[in-house]
């Protein structure tokens, strides 16, 4: 019952966090943890009240997990090949392929470490399981947090709409960036029809080393071509990353002075990280995502996940240790008590 009580507590904390309606990784972490502890609590009850049902449940899970991992590995490898074919060779485009290969290699690595024998082999295998388990749990929490943030209500009358740049191709707006601009135009038209003052659009992006002009300039040109009046477009052309997008756009947004929260438009996979960055750099902003081509999504989400891990390396090391200690404690609570 202790595990079920802890799951209920996590759900209460999740509800409190959800009520704040802001981008936060803790929402996904709390919800996933509550579901896991609830499942373990049910298993604990089965072990004590119906051992045969508990053994059957464990057997089904033990069979299902390798099958699911195999299917996921094949999917990721196939997606990785598609990414290389359509997007070219780069580390970011290799992520889904590497993840799929890693899933296939993982069981053989464990068998090799255990075959090594002795305490050293066992501890090495346990360490690999801990790191892989934590990485998988953190990724699921990241996905759930992204979905929860994307489901929050969108302001219908923002005072400004900031569009984050994503790179030009030969000085022109590519499909990925066009999706962001089209989503911003749709939000602008909806706000204009709702009455009141039409929001200002802030296309944000500087000039990269391989670009003939700033992204903000090309984005502004696209907006004008789609019928947005020029006086409602205020490009930001100095930023080189998401953090600078938000920081440099803030001065433009603050200068507008109209009521209502700012709206930030990016791609769907980038919503959570942009929302986390916006909390300090563009307070009150709500970030929304434009649809991305389906084949691009797995690698894009993996890239965002890696970026978030890298941003808080020390914190995740501490969480991984807590994760390992929790697994040992839960195992003892279910099978040794």
What's a quick, concise take on this entry?
The chain has 337 residues and is mainly alpha-helical. Helix content is 69%, strand content 6%.
Structure characteristics:
mainly alpha, Rossmann fold, 2 domains, four-stranded parallel sheet, 4 strands, 6% strand
Q: How does this model look, in words?
A:
The mean pLDDT is 87. This protein has a 4-stranded parallel beta sheet. It is mostly helical and 337 residues long. It folds into 2 domains: 2-151 and 300-336, no CATH class; 160-260, HUPs (Rossmann fold). The longest helix has 37 residues, at 51-87. Helix 6 links the parallel strand 1 and strand 2 (200-204). The two termini are 13 Å apart. It is built from 11 helices and 4 strands. Helix 4 (91-116) crosses helix 10 and helix 5 crosses helix 11 (313-336). It has helices spanning 2-19, 25-49, 51-87, 91-116, 118-150, 175-193, 215-225, 242-256, 271-281, 297-311, 313-336, and strands at 160-164, 200-204, 263-267, 286-290.
Determine the fraction of residues in helical runs and give it as a percent range. 55-70%
Instruction: Give the C-alpha Rg.
Output: 24 Å
> In total, how many beta strands?
4
Main pleated sheet: 4 strands, parallel
**Number of structural domains:** 2
Mean pLDDT, to the nearest integer, reads 87
Low-confidence stretches: none
Q: Report strand %.
A: 5-15%
Structural class: mainly alpha
Specify the overall morphology: globular
What is the H-and-E element order? Answer: HHHHHEHEHHEHEHH
């Amino acid at each position: 019952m202790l595990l079920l009580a802890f799951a209920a507590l996590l759900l209460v904390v999740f509800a409190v966090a959800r009520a704040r309606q802001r981008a936060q990784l803790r929402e996904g972490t709390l919800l996933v943890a509550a579901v896991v502890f609830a499942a373990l609590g049910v298993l604990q009850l089965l072990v004590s009240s119906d051992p045969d049902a508990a053994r059957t449940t464990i057997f089904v899970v033990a069979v299902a997990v390798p099958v699911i991992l195999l299917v996921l590995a094949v999917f990721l490898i196939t997606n990785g090949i598609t990414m290389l074919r359509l997007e070219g060779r780069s580390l970011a485009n290799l992520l889904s392929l590497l993840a799929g290969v890693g899933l296939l290699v993982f069981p053989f690595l464990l068998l090799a470490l255990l075959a090594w024998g002795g305490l050293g082999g066992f501890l090495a295998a346990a360490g690999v399981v801990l790191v892989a388990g934590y990485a998988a749990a953190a990724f699921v929490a990241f996905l759930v947090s992204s979905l929860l943030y994307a489901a929050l209500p969108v302001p219908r009358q923002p005072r400004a709409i900031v569009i984050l740049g994503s790179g030009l191709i030969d000085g022109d707006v590519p499909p990925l960036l066009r999706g962001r601009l089209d989503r911003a135009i749709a939000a602008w038209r909806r706000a204009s029809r709702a009455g009141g003052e039409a929001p200002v659009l802030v296309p944000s992006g500087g000039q990269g080393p391989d670009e003939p002009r700033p992204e903000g300039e090309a984005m502004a040109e696209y907006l004008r071509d789609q019928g947005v009046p020029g006086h409602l477009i205020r490009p930001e052309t100095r930023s080189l990353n998401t953090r600078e997008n938000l920081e440099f756009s803030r001065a433009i947004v603050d200068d507008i002075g109209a009521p209502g929260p700012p709206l930030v438009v990016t791609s769907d996979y980038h919503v959570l990280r942009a929302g986390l960055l916006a909390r300090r750099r563009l307070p009150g902003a709500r970030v929304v995502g434009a649809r991305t081509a389906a084949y691009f999504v797995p690698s894009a989400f993996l890239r965002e996940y890696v970026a978030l891990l890298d941003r808080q390396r020390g914190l995740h090391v501490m969480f991984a240790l807590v994760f390992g200690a929790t697994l040992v404690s839960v195992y003892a609570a279910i099978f040794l008590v």
